[in-house]
TrEMBL record, chain A:
<feature type="domain" description="PX">
    <location>
        <begin position="102"/>
        <end position="231"/>
    </location>
</feature>
<dbReference type="InterPro" id="IPR036871">
    <property type="entry name" value="PX_dom_sf"/>
</dbReference>
<dbReference type="InterPro" id="IPR027267">
    <property type="entry name" value="AH/BAR_dom_sf"/>
</dbReference>
<dbReference type="InterPro" id="IPR001683">
    <property type="entry name" value="PX_dom"/>
</dbReference>
<feature type="region of interest" description="Disordered">
    <location>
        <begin position="1"/>
        <end position="34"/>
    </location>
</feature>
<comment type="function">
    <text>Involved in several stages of intracellular trafficking. Interacts with membranes containing phosphatidylinositol 3-phosphate (PtdIns(3P)) or phosphatidylinositol 3,5-bisphosphate (PtdIns(3,5)P2). Acts in part as component of the retromer membrane-deforming SNX-BAR subcomplex. The SNX-BAR retromer mediates retrograde transport of cargo proteins from endosomes to the trans-Golgi network (TGN) and is involved in endosome-to-plasma membrane transport for cargo protein recycling.</text>
</comment>
<dbReference type="InterPro" id="IPR015404">
    <property type="entry name" value="Vps5_C"/>
</dbReference>
<keyword id="KW-0966">Cell projection</keyword>
<keyword id="KW-0007">Acetylation</keyword>
From TrEMBL, chain B:
<dbReference type="GO" id="GO:0015031">
    <property type="term" value="P:protein transport"/>
</dbReference>
<keyword id="KW-0813">Transport</keyword>
<dbReference type="InterPro" id="IPR027267">
    <property type="entry name" value="AH/BAR_dom_sf"/>
</dbReference>
<dbReference type="InterPro" id="IPR001683">
    <property type="entry name" value="PX_dom"/>
</dbReference>
<dbReference type="Pfam" id="PF00787">
    <property type="entry name" value="PX"/>
</dbReference>
<protein>
    <recommendedName>
        <fullName>Sorting nexin</fullName>
    </recommendedName>
</protein>
<dbReference type="InterPro" id="IPR014637">
    <property type="entry name" value="SNX5/SNX6/SNX32"/>
</dbReference>
<comment type="function">
    <text>Involved in several stages of intracellular trafficking.</text>
</comment>
<dbReference type="GO" id="GO:0005829">
    <property type="term" value="C:cytosol"/>
</dbReference>
Length: 481, 397
């Protein structure tokens, strides 16, 4: 287990960057556009290649763009208790599962706009409720902004990714979404954006603290507990997009290498293939869900139009009772239209967001596998170098250069240490990844099962409402005489 | 091609309601007992039970095609004696083209899909074909029932020939020239209709009916179109199918769980399809039928207005003739004829329009009640499926 805050000394942070642009680009933290104009003192390195990635708008290449639903259902405006629970349900599934002793709840709430114009940002309240002894109190809150979350992720990524831990990716940034909020546009779409972000941040934190290692990380504890958080500027900033590009580059490099690995790696190869397949499946499912939502919305629009038409028909009908019944029918259809919309929104939030999360998570998993390859390579390289040095030393034995000989012997000793460390690192990361993958799979199954159950429950709700509406209409229809 | 014998189930279809509240006269009952769908035509077996003396037997059947129904309808429209009645609207032409095309495409693509997929799609398309078939049979039956229930039309000679003559009526469809003539007639008629509609009626009842029918007809047209669109969306398989397909393809997940969910989606999808089909029958078809009936009622009002205009013109002509003292007798006869025609039409029209309202109210009542009951039945069915599946799934997790 890691006790050192900065991570194991043997693999420095700069190895993370696949493009060897030199050491850390520390002033580059600006991957959140909300901070773009915030502080003039912030140094932004203009020629950093990461900058383009960090400032690029929109979702990561991993996910197709999601069109937000058109009706506003935010916790503030939505009065339907069922729908309210939907948005906060994702990772609170743990409490419903018996036999799970994880006792910690994090909620992200009360988004509040701070400041004006392009300097403005959203502050969120992060509340932790827990009975774990790790914390000083049972319940405590802090205020955090989006860049704080990104900062947390980047610290964790730099410390743990390269030794095989699947660090949950932070939510996506969005220049368009955030600009609307800054500019003060208080409309449906900006409300939805804030709500989506709030929910995503909550899921992110819950996933992070559910990880037994990450939970104990001092950065995480500081994030949750301390009232003042230093502005995240120091460590390498890695947005999901940046991570993905880096992983892709590494994957390319790895493919070019002809690596001979032994049989235990069959497990790793199989798992890698499995995650590739899963990635494809999830994207397909994501596309299905979007198409489904689209069709349901079309049904909703057509139902609304029919409702209006039926109301007009009722108006012109000159038999009183029939006229009333037709107006009632119009009302029923209007309510059903609203049901269709709510269902479409439920489909969207439940599945789309979860799928998006998992597509990003799998990117992190792939990253971890690639780190293992790099670790192996490093070990091999050390071995090769050691061999060369030994050969060189053997040659030096026959020359009369005692200084050089001693230097060679020293170098060899150092290299032997490196080789041993390399082997240990490789075994360690392999072990860690096995554990992580098994944990990931368990969580994934739990997550998806729970979401499906929630979805079915929402369908139950819809049917119950339908029954209510038609039950109320039936006597009106019978009253026609 | 496909041949499907089927007994009609018009009980579920609106216009049956026409007979429910009217006195079903035991002396004449007509129904379509069987129907056969062939490549490019449908053959209806028209079955009659009657105690009327003019028929040779008490019970008999003949085979008729769509064109022969149209011939009968047109003979009513062209008969001056029936000017004062709402002529039951002609049944729409059977249209299986779209359905046939889909089945054909399916057949062509058989090689490119699994046996399961093919069977499933084939079943669905066949069900669709069957539904269209049943509907067209019901529409034709409704027309005949309406005629049989009408106190005057039921006595029509052409109608009796239609029912009894067991040979082909040799009614050919209209050729191009005749269709063109029809087109021009309609143009003239609608222009005339506008002129005639401008004439204000002395009689309050008819004045009200005119305004009412005009607005009502337009609104029914709009409601019919919108309900069609809504139901088409509802029928869209894309509301469920894709999700189910994706769920079914997760292989590493615990198999039992997802098998159950796939099963559930399959069942609820079938129920949703039934809901859409029922809405189609109870709502869309109801509106379509009353679109046609309200047009027939408008036509009646037009004929009456036309005869009123003719009457007024005859009056003017008579005054002129008397003033000039020329052709007075001729003008008097003409005026009397017009007067008589107008009064006859007005009298029967009044009753017809009152009956139309009664029929309309009864039909809407029946279908709206049945619609609500079916919606409830399906929602409860869905609910039960969902709840029982949830019970099993939660138990397993």
């Amino acid at each position: 287990l890691l006790t050192d805050k900065s991570g194991p000394a043997s693999l420095p942070a700069e190895d993370i960057s696949a493009n060897s642009n030199g050491p850390k680009q520390d002033s580059l933290f600006d991957d959140d556009p909300e901070d773009l104009f915030a502080e003039a003192t912030e140094e932004v390195s203009l020629d950093s290649p990461e900058r383009e990635v960090l400032l690029s708008d929109g979702p990561s290449p991993a996910i197709t763009p999601i069109t937000p639903p058109t009706s506003v259902i935010t916790p503030k405006t939505c009065s339907d208790p069922f729908l309210l629970t939907l948005y906060s349900c994702f990772l609170k599934i743990e409490e419903e599962e018996g036999g799970d002793s994880f006792d910690m709840h994090i909620s992200v709430s009360d988004p509040e706009k701070v400041g004006d114009g392009m300097n403005a940002y959203m502050a969120y309240k992060v509340t932790t409720k827990t009975s774990m002894s790790l914390f000083k109190t049972d319940e405590f809150s802090v205020k955090r902004r989006f860049s704080d979350f990104l900062g947390l992720h980047s610290k964790l990524a730099s410390k743990y990714l390269h030794i095989g831990y699947i660090v949950p990716p932070a939510p996506e940034k969005s220049i368009v979404g955030m600009t609307k909020v800054k500019v003060g546009k208080e409309d449906q779409s900006s409300n939805e954006f804030v709500e989506k972000r709030r929910s995503a941040l909550e899921r992110y934190l819950m996933r992070t603290v559910k990880h037994p290692i990450l939970l104990k990380d001092p950065d995480v504890l500081q994030f949750l507990e301390s009232s003042e958080l230093p502005r995240a500027v120091s460590t390498q900033a890695l947005s999901s997009a940046g991570l993905l590009r880096m992983v892709n580059k590494a994957a390319d490099a790895v493919n070019k290498m002809t690596i001979k690995m032994n049989e235990s790696d069959a497990w790793f190869e199989e798992k890698q293939q499995h995650f590739e397949n899963l990635d494809v499946q999830l994207r397909k499912l994501h596309a299905s869900v979007e198409s489904l939502v689209c069709h349901r919305k079309e049904l909703s629009v057509n139902t609304a139009q029919f409702a209006k038409s039926a109301a007009m028909l009722g108006n012109s009908e000159d038999h009183t009772a029939l006229s009333r019944a037709l107006s009632q029918l119009a009302e029923v259809e209007e309510k059903i239209d609203q049901l269709h919309q709510d269902q479409a929104n439920a489909d969207f939030y439940l599945f789309s967001e979860l799928l998006g999360d998992y597509v990003r998570l799998i990117t992190a998993v792939k990253g971890v596998f690639d780190h293992r390859m790099k670790t192996w390579q490093k070990w091999q390289d050390s071995q090769l170098l050691l061999q060369k040095k030994r050969e060189a030393e053997a040659k030096l034995q026959f020359t009369n250069k005692p200084d050089k000989l001693q230097q060679a012997k020293d170098e060899i000793k150092e290299l032997e240490g490196k080789v041993q460390q390399g082997e240990r690192d490789f075994e360690q990361i392999s072990k860690t990844i096995r554990k992580e993958v098994s944990r990931f799979e368990k969580e994934r199954v739990k997550d998806f099962k729970m979401i499906i159950i929630k979805y079915l429950e929402s369908l139950v709700q819809t049917q119950q409402q339908l029954i209510k509406y038609w039950d109320a209409f039936l006597p009106e229809a019978k009253a026609i005489s | 091609h496909t041949e499907t014998h089927t007994h009609t189930h018009t009980d579920s279809l609106l216009p049956r309601a026409v007979n429910v509240d009217l006195q079903t006269d035991a002396t004449l009952q007509v129904d379509i007992s069987d129907a056969l769908s062939e490549r490019d035509k449908v053959k209806f077996t028209v079955h009659t039970k009657s105690t009327l003396p003019n028929f040779k037997q008490n019970e008999f059947s003949v085979v008729r095609q769509h064109e022969e129904f149209i011939w009968l309808h047109d003979s009513f429209v062209e008969n001056e004696d029936y000017a004062g009645y709402i002529i039951p609207p002609a049944p729409p032409r059977p249209d299986f083209d779209a359905s046939r095309e889909k089945l054909q495409k399916l057949g062509e693509g058989e090689g490119s899909m699994t046996k399961e997929e093919f069977t499933k799609m084939k079943q669905e398309l066949e069900a669709e074909y069957l539904a269209i078939f049943k509907k067209t049979v019901a529409m034709h039956e409704v027309f005949l029932c309406r005629v049989a229930a009408h106190p005057v039309l039921r006595k029509d000679l052409n109608f009796h020939v239609f029912l009894e003559y067991n040979q082909d009526l040799s009614v050919r469809g209209k050729n191009k020239k005749e269709k063109l003539e029809d087109f021009f007639k309609n143009v003239v008629k609608s222009a005339d209709g506008v002129l005639v509609a401008g004439v204000k009626d002395v009689d309050d009842f008819f004045e009200h009916e005119k305004t009412f029918l005009l607005e009502y007809h337009n609104r029914v047209k709009d409601a019919s179109a919108k309900s069609d669109r809504m139901i088409r969306s509802h029928k869209s398989k894309k509301l469920f199918y894709n999700l189910q397909d994706a769920v079914a393809s997760w292989e590493l997940m615990q198999l039992m769980f997802f098998l159950k969910v796939s099963e559930l989606f399959e069942k609820t999808r079938k129920i949703e399809a039934r809901v859409a089909a029922d809405e189609d029958l109870k709502l869309a078809d109801l509106l379509k039928y009353y679109l046609r009936e309200s047009q027939a009622a408008k036509d009646l009002l037009y004929r009456r207005s036309r005869s009123l205009v003719d009457y007024e013109n005859a009056n003017k002509a008579l005054d002129k003739a008397r003033a000039k003292n020329r052709d007075v007798l001729q003008a008097e006869t003409s005026q009397q004829l017009c007067c008589h025609k107008f009064e006859k039409i007005s009298e029967s029209a009044k009753q017809e329009l009152i009956d139309f309202k009664t029929r309309r109210v009864a039909a809407f009542r029946k279908n709206l009640v049945e619609l609500a009951e079916l919606e409830l039945k399906h929602a409860k069915g869905n609910l039960q499926l969902l709840q029982s599946c949830l019970g099993v799934l939660k138990g397993n997790t």
